[in-house]
Amino acid sequence: MEKRFALFLVLSALILFMHLTVQSLLHPPQPADRKPAEVAEGDAVKPAAKPVPDGAGGPAAKVKPVPAGGEDQAAPAQPAAAKKPPAMSAPPVAVPDQRLTLGSMASDSPYRLLVTLHNRGAGVERIELVQRTATGRFRFQDLEQASGYVGYLALSDEPQGKGCRVNVVGPGTPAGTAKPETPGAGDGLRAGDVIRRIDSTTVRDTIDWGRFLADTKPEQTVRIAVTRAAGAGQAQDLTLSATLTSAPLTLVQPEIQPKSGLPAPLSFLLTLESLGDASIPRGGQEIDKLTSLRDSNWQVRRLDDDPTGPGVEFKFVLTDGDLQAIGGAGSLELVKRYRLAKTPPQELANSSFPSYHLQLELEIRNLGDNPQQVAYRLDGSNGLPLEGWWYLAKIHPRMFAAAGARDVIWNTPATGHGLIGGSQIFSDAKAALEKSQPVNIPLWADPQPQPLNYVGVDTQYFATVLEPQPSETEPPLLFKQALALPVGETDPDDKSKHKTTDVSFRLISPAQTVPAGGVWKQAFTVFAGPKQPALLTAYNLERCIEYGWFRTIAKFLGAILHVFESLPGVNYGLAIILLTVLVRSCMFPLSRKAAKNAQMMQELAPEMKRLAEKHKDDMQKRAAAQRELFAKHNYNPFGGCLLMFLQLPIFIGLYRALSVDIELRQASLIPGLSWCSNLAGPDMLWYWKPYLPAFLAGENGWLGPYLNVLPIVTIILFLLQQKMFMPPATDEQTRMQQQMMKYMMVFMGLLFFRVPSGLCIYFIASSLWSVAERKMLPPVGPAGKPAAAGPQPSSLWERVAARFGPVDDSDKARSQRRQRKRR
Prior knowledge:
Mean pLDDT: 81
Distance between the termini: 29 Å
Shape: globular
Strand content: 15-25%
Radius of gyration: 32 Å
CATH architecture of the domain at 270-546: Distorted Sandwich
Strand order of the largest sheet: 14-15-16-17-29-24-23-19-20
């Protein structure tokens, strides 16, 4: 029977292995990547094109300019000639393309965000988390980029391979603080500089720039040669030295679409949903024939002298000619203001101080002589990081629902907190596209306008959330609709998109009548930061962290973990071990009784086998004899199961506490080693993806792209426990069950291979505790006989001394040790 079963398992595994191998060769998975893909060399690149993430060390790419009308969801871009130009009056003065920044990356900066804004659509192009630790490191680094970082420059290619043009330079970045070798030239790169060379490498385009940075390291100094306009048509050649840094986490940025090579739309774009009798058609992005608010350049004014904080004001005027093109009259002025929160000097060391936000103000002014009825559409953020999407265990608030790497969350007074997973958004979008319908996924079913507490995009450890902020004298802001939607291309054949779909949200306001000369104002807080419990509580966003069923237990154990980490000389790796010891110590009476039950079962196994042989043809008599045997020895066969159920809430609570704790991210097991330097992810000893089939080593494969050591140690300890403490089989059925458990343990190893290393440390410490606990239990006498005579240790420490104390070489001691081994 055992040989046939083993042969069945081997043949099944072999067939499955061959099937997956052939499948991976015929249909290799497309990796999910936030970095751009290369496009044809002949593609023209205009200065206004969306640049690549040039500050990163990954490969840069040439990209095409975004066509008029933008790119959203899965609709393919149409050729410019196929688009009907809107009937509108030409603007009196063309507004140049501009990028501006709020915040600073300097180590002494009072800002925790570095925000890059673009006057095309008045949108947010990039948000970086730049808070520093006491040692000067970024509190939240990009864990997937080990190369040096010079800062985001929004590079675009010069014609004929003559270099890269710098379009923005962030304050405090290595590029912004670069030192010139030419006296009097001024520190830092500047917008408009054209990069010609870096060290001895000629920079012809953004691809050369990206390839060079990919081979650099933090703290490396590079020399950048640029050409700078000197006025009157003159140019000046300069060389600057910049010291690279590690890359901070980029929380928001438009992703480059793998097929078209075009960037996704910017974040927080605004347009009009309706104006008078005109409205956006079904499936459209803007009102037909009306000047595009999403793709036009808005006028810009800095608000550095504003007492509430540094800010930027964007303004766009729809003239009478623009409104006449859609059958209206009059004029409207739309205003968007962004203000960045500033951290007071006394709160710089307080990571829970609420300064991870922007203030967003919207104004619609009626410049005409007649009332105007308008409604607006405001999109949310997109391009949140996919870091660790292939191993993170994010859970959904509802049972039997799946969360993705990026999900949409919301909260209303009527429904409370809700989440729609990225996988569901992808599936709904796929079904809508197959039916040639627009992708609109409502967050609530009520057709009446609803007040909204917040709506945002959520990842495992970070979130961007939009919170309406009505004034104290105004009622809550109402919204006609709130939608979840995919961003960019939706490829139904890409299976990885089920987990990695880029998602966003959209708010649609009810129509509002703005009187002549009047203004309609609305304000929002844009939270963009880590999911740290105390910080989220300050923003009323504590429900963004999902602990599962045992929320109270998980939060309590997480608080104890932080107390241990605050002790001198204790890092989070050691704190997890201390927490495991504390939890297992508190549960010692329960686990001790369960261990005694298991030990008694081992002692009773020969007698049970004898009863099975004696009553092998009469199940009723055998069951009665076993009950009598259990009663004689005061043994409850279900006692261990009951105790395990009592321990289950604590174990699951501890598991969830370690799974969602952002402090474990970027925390190392052994300081100074790159191995196991992120307790929130696998230990990642060796990158073996290039050497194994995709179904094993791909991100969607069984094992993942890295060889991990700690899960292997965990499974070895599980098997060791099973071998040491499993009672002998009493019949063929029990033997088969135990054999199955061994095979199941191997399959469990596949499930554990992606488990974060912090959880593996917990399992390893808990398993070692269980082994020591069983070894310290006094032996139980043989079935039907009392335990060996003689004084027994009465305390835990006496048992330890009895087990591991000095060795007695007397004949009596040797005889006792031989008896214990035979038992």
